[in-house]
Amino acid sequence: MLIGELSRRTGVSARSLRYYEAQGLLEARRGTNGYRAYDEDAVASVRKIRALLRAGLSTEVIRQVLPCARGEQGGFDWCAELRAILDGELADLDEQIEALRRSRGALVGLLAER
């Protein structure tokens, strides 16, 4: 399928699809006319990429975990590597949340001094 059809079927802009390809997340063949052609499984891949982006993962991390994202309906095959990477990302998020809480507390303290 061409990029326009993949865009329509996934609700993702052609620009984003080209970006995913540039980031190594999505593969396209080039026809003799130079147009991108995607396999049928690209629809499921794009849905998985979107789910991982919504979870806050970077494209670099998604590139690492996408091979474990097998199955239909955006499901994930919980291979050990995927679980370890996602656990690490969750720990990083928890650290960021705690740092924001500390910053918020310091700001509230400054405002209370007025």
UniProtKB/TrEMBL annotation:
Residues 1-68 form the HTH merR-type domain. GO terms for molecular function: DNA binding; DNA-binding transcription factor activity. Keywords: DNA-binding, Repressor, Transcription, Transcription regulation. InterPro entries: DNA-bd_dom_put_sf (IPR009061), MerR-type_HTH_dom (IPR000551), MerR_fam (IPR047057). This is MerR family transcriptional regulator. It comes from Streptomyces parvus.
